[in-house]
DNA sequence: ACAGCATTGTTGGCGGCGTCTACATTCGGG
DNA sequence: CCCGAATGTAGACGCCGCCAACAATGCTGT
């Protein structure tokens, strides 16, 4: 994501057209979000950072909420990648795979706390909301795959997968969400996840 | 300009001092939050609603965040009451009691969605944050009591209570949080909670 | 090649917001 | 009963999101 476009010639730093302002806005917005928190995110300051007039962002996002929605979407995309990657160098047992995905989710959550807040914020445009629900369910499906495999191996109780999956989804999201909002003592964060994983495994073990 | 004082119509209840502006601010703020969402919450509009000058709120809350923090605190108080009440007319088995508290929590969450968002928002003043963490742990303790009782009855696995409780806390909070952010289809909301409760029970059943 | 149009960026302005300071009124304890 | 503390008011400042009018650029069909 280097700005190969914006810095074509070393001399020429300023052009009328930015090249890819939309992407630049999203990138910079996420940095600001991470570094200074959601309250410090303003379209005008973003524009200043990118050396662009204060109204330029409106060409790419119809309002501030639209930018936040887009940011949340990229968050879900990166989350899905992260979770997929977590399944690559890991054993075959359901316990191992669930553990891996759980750790990956919590790691992502703590490493992207403010972004996660945004992803699940109850504030989205109704239209963008559809896309976001779809995105969140995309990672739900990664859980579902895992469960299907576990059921096939006889390591997970039978039943419709969304009924087995929802409690896992909720538990994982809940723990991550608590961790993110600093509601857990540091010690609970470290060793707590192990207990949570064990709890999930018991919860969906075959009867 | 002082005729409001000297020539006051009998019904005119307008006084220089409001009486209990602080409480009125909190009450009205929660209404606005519920009815028009967090984005529509502004100190100035709040002041207008209550017929006071735009700077009056600053006498009671040093800034907007302070008001939000206070609002979150009252939320935790009401939540604790609600959960306590849920244990009153319910059977003695751990399953019944956990079910009752879970339903009460989810009911509170859906009935106070925006407030719950605020309560767990990662945005608080460091100083107020202490109070909030304490408040959130107060309801954690209600869970802990329940677990202790369940262990005593032999219906819950042994072990340090925070280690048994954390997964329950996380699951419950996660489900409520998902419900609140509209990430669950309506059907999952209704029947999903039963599955989640069953999952929790299996997760902390004696070995 | 180039005219015409859509895209993208700029400038200026509007009203609302949060916060600060200076001032006014009221309350309550010596 | 008076004086300081609490509480409310009035005005100003700078920032914000958003809008409308205008300017530069890119692209496409002929």
From TrEMBL, chains A, B:
DNA-binding region: 42-61
Keywords: DNA-binding, Transcription, Transcription regulation
PROSITE patterns (alphabetical): HTH_TETR_2 (PS50977)
Domain of life: Bacteria
Gene Ontology MF, one: DNA-binding transcription factor activity
Coiled coil regions, renumbered to chain: none
Entry protein name: TetR family transcriptional regulator
